[in-house]
Amino acid sequence: MDAAPDQAAPKRVRRRIFKLIDPKFQMKYTLIIVAVGVVVSAVLGYFIYYLTAENRDLLGIDAELMPHVEQQDSHYMLMLIGFVVVMALFLFLWGILITHRVAGPIFIISRYLRELGEGRPPQTRPLRRGDELKEFFDTFSATVAAVRQANLEEAQLIEQTAASIREKGGESLADTAKALDDLASRKKAWGQDEA
């Protein structure tokens, strides 16, 4: 039996490869987060171990039980080390995620600023859900929109001036009118959104 024609083809699964946006920034601050977590845990672990050993000496445990107590202490120390390793891994992943949410908007804004510097209007898009710096990005996008609008208004004024020059100036000002028309075209292009 043939498949029904109204059945859609299976959707392609799009896989995103996770990569660092700004490796230097992201690794620096992630490693700082991990180092602080590990140092704090190591200091607390040392004090716990020290207090445990001191309490064991104060209790005066029998020599027969001492090997069992030392084995338990070793077991707890291994658990503490395991906890620190798991915590360091968690902090590393969390640090990468958090710095990714900051580095992404900075990367996008830097690209838009490069486009502005090259004289091209950036085609802004909203940030990803969960990204930081949204207020800053919204301010930047509003500024780009205001520049677009100003360019459109200037283009209209330039076109009107060029038309006036053509009407009243005759042949002698034709080159000036053409130059103004070219400038108006560039300004209009700045004010138009790409589809």
Question: Would you summarize the structure shown here?
Answer:
The chain has 195 residues and is mainly alpha-helical.
Give keywords.
195 residues, rod-shaped, mainly alpha, single chain
Share in β-strands: under 5%
Query: What is the helical fraction, as a range of percent?
Result: over 70%
Q: Roughly what is the average pLDDT, rounded to an integer?
A: 81
First-last Cα distance: 43 Å
Tally the helices: what do you get? 4
The domain count comes to: 2
| Order of helical and strand elements | HHHH
The shape, in one word, is: rod-shaped
In total, the number of strands is 0
Structural class: mainly alpha
Residue windows where pLDDT falls under 50 for at least 5 positions:
none
* Biggest pleated-sheet summary: none
| Radius of gyration computed on alpha carbons | 33 Å
Task: Describe what you observe in this structure.
- The protein has 195 residues and is an all-alpha fold.
- The protein folds into two domains: 19-131; 133-195.
- It is built from four helices and no strands.
- It has helices at residues 23-59, 66-117, 134-169, 174-191.
- Helix 3 (134-169) packs antiparallel against helix 4 (174-191).
- The longest helix is centred in the middle third of the chain and has 52 residues, at 66-117.
- The model has no long low-confidence stretch (mean pLDDT 81).
